[in-house]
TrEMBL record:
Family from the record: Belongs to the class-III pyridine nucleotide-disulfide oxidoreductase family.
One Pfam family recorded for the sequence: Pyr_redox_dim
Cofactor(s) listed: FAD
Gene name linked to the record: noxA
GO MF term (any one): oxidoreductase activity
Name this protein carries in UniProt: NADH oxidase
Keywords (A to Z) from UniProt: FAD, Flavoprotein, Oxidation, Oxidoreductase, Redox-active center
Domain Rhodanese: start-end pairs: 465-553
């Protein structure tokens, strides 16, 4: 059997390596258009920022290594011009020799990846200081440019993974950094109330933000000297990084009339088979599906690509592996914050047909008396069944292990109550007695049953609609005077039993403290003395004030 793979970064090399591990008799050939293979795209910002010293550490293996280790022929600088599924042939052009040839196959794997978008008015060919951060060639070019030119100010277009990682790294390198983001928030992948924490972190590190804006004009001949935005900002710059997203590289698939999916990526089944016989697609070029709903999604990440490659390599050589879907899990660092997410947001859960219940949980990652710092967790569950659906976390520590627990829970169809019953490791340097994961599950389960929660967004909506409300601040008078929820009355927790005597037990009541713990006790008290509709403000006054600031910036 002859296996031909087109592309050799995360997915393509994984196909080849797994196939060889399973079968010593197969002929395995890989074609790569670029010079480098099996490199870390995710590590590129950290090399450019100086956190990674040597570029070669991002390229751990070359074609010669694969030949010696696995007896796999990897041909770099070879451009595959066309594929012919009926004839089981591909057309290949050797860029070094300037020669073309045809190659036959028994099984063909497309690992052609994705390409970065270039938003107008930018063009890569016109300006020498405009770059993507997608390939090793991009990284080498940026590094060379920064070493050969005086670069003091960088402008980043877009605030996704790469945009924010580059903002962090270039700031740490000593550059002044500006971000221009088309959406009305930083990092549109997460909810606006959580993204506000990222906005504050960027501002705390002197990153210049232009949100809900886009570049309209460019000043400079051959080199961008300044950009003008639609909202009237003029940004002088020495370097421009385009980070507005990627699209699947489906040129070969489209020309061969291979079916694309709803997302625009190549449609595949659980074994990554395409609509063409004996042709597979893996990595950024392939469509995936959501683990919870089974609906198509596009989730281009190196971890997913590696997994897909391993599955195809196994399947081609008689193995049982099949793709189980993804949750859209992601994580990145932004200065002193870690940002992570998995599963559905509130909006996504509603769009998928669930009735979402949402809570904000502000808890230290481990015991405060040994230096624990606070996490902000936004959890989502289905109101009817209690199934846990998603989480977003922002905080300086302990984010990674919590998001992995949440992702595992969703994978195995855990309910919110199941989260509370997890037997998680506890010691003061590592957790709290009720770990933030457990507490999130507990509050979600309470909220969907008999202890309802109102988010700041929902509270503001109710007030804007003039719905009759009683809002009670159970903090101290000093805290209340510093800031409080609009129209709230201050009745400290110790005075609550007597202080609510004159309130209407039938009117919708919202109670809050600073972060949510004391207000839960207050809510139980109100319900026990006859209040018919007592609600907790999710995340307390801290979360409310952040929400208001995010709406008024």
């Amino acid at each position: 059997m002859k296996i031909v793979v087109i592309g050799s970064v995360a997915a393509g090399t994984s196909v080849a390596a797994k196939a060889r591990r399973n079968d010593e008799t197969a002929e395995i050939v890989v074609y790569e258009e670029a010079e480098d293979i099996s490199y870390s795209v995710c590590g590129m910002p950290y090399f450019l920022g100086g956190e990674v010293d040597e570029l070669d550490t991002l390229i751990p293996r070359d074609a010669e290594w694969f030949k010696k280790r696995f007896e796999i022929d990897i041909h770099t600088n070879h451009h595959v011009k066309a594929i012919h599924p009926l004839a089981k042939e591909i057309e290949v052009y050797d860029k070094v020799k300037g020669e073309g040839t045809r190659e036959t196959y028994d099984k063909l794997v497309l690992a052609t990846g994705s390409y970065s978008l270039t938003p107008p008015p930018f063009t890569l060919d016109t300006y020498e200081n405009v770059f993507h951060v997608k390939t090793m060639d991009n990284t080498k070019a940026i590094d060379t440019y920064m070493k050969s030119n005086e670069v003091e100010h960088a402008t980043i277009i877009g605030s996704g993974y790469i945009g924010l990682e580059m903002a962090e790294q270039l700031t740490k390198k000593g550059l002044k950094v500006s971000i221009v983001e088309l959406a009305d928030q930083i990092f549109p992948r997460i909810d606006a109330d959580m993204a506000y924490h990222l906005e504050k972190e960027l501002q705390n590190n002197n990153v210049d933000l232009h949100i809900n804006d886009k570049v309209k004009t460019i000043k400079g001949e051959g080199k961008v000297e300044a950009v003008g935005t639609e909202n009237g900002a003029a940004i002088e710059t020495d370097l421009v990084i385009l980070a507005v997203g990627v699209r699947p590289n489906t040129v070969l698939a489209t020309e061969a009339e291979i079916e694309l999916g709803e997302t625009g990526a190549v449609k595949v089944d659980n074994y990554m088979k395409t609509s063409a016989e004996d042709v597979y697609a893996v990595g950024d070029v392939a469509e995936t599906f959501h683990r919870v709903t089974g609906q198509p999604i596009y989730h281009p990440l190196g971890s997913t690509a590696n997994k897909m490659g391993r599955i195809v390599g196994d399947h081609l050589t008689g193995g049982p592996l099949e793709f189980k879907g993804t949750l859209g899990t992601g994580i990145f660092r932004l200065f002193d914050l870690t940002v992570a997410f998995t599963g559905f947001s509130e909006k996504e859960a509603a769009a998928a047909g669930f009735d979402p219940v949402v809570v904000h949980n502000i808890k230290p990652a481990h015991a405060k008396y040994v230096g624990g710092k606070e996490l902000t967790i936004k959890g989502v569950a289905d109101r009817e069944t209690g199934r846990f659906l998603g989480a977003q976390i922002v905080g300086p520590e302990g984010v990674d292990k919590r998001i992995d627990v949440f992702a595992t829970a969703i994978t195995f169809k855990a309910t919110a109550e199941d989260l509370f019953h997890l037997d998680l490791a506890y010691a003061p340097p590592y957790s709290t007695t009720k770990d933030p994961v457990m507490y999130t599950g507990m509050v979600l389960e309470n909220a969907r049953k008999n202890l309802p929660v109102v988010t700041p967004k929902e509270l503001v909506r109710l007030q804007d609609k003039d719905v009759p409300l009683q809002i009670i601040d159970v903090r101290s008078p000093k805290q209340y005077e510093k800031n409080h929820v609009k129209n709230a009355v201050n009745i400290p927790m110790l005075d609550l039993r007597k202080g609510v005597a004159d309130l209407d037990h039938s009117v919708k009541t919202v109670v809050y403290c600073n972060k949510g713990v004391t207000s839960n006790t207050a809510q139980n008290l109100l319900l026990n003395i006859g209040f018919l509709d007592a609600n907790v403000l999710s995340g307390g006054n801290t979360n409310y004030q952040n929400y208001i600031k995010s709406q008024n910036r």
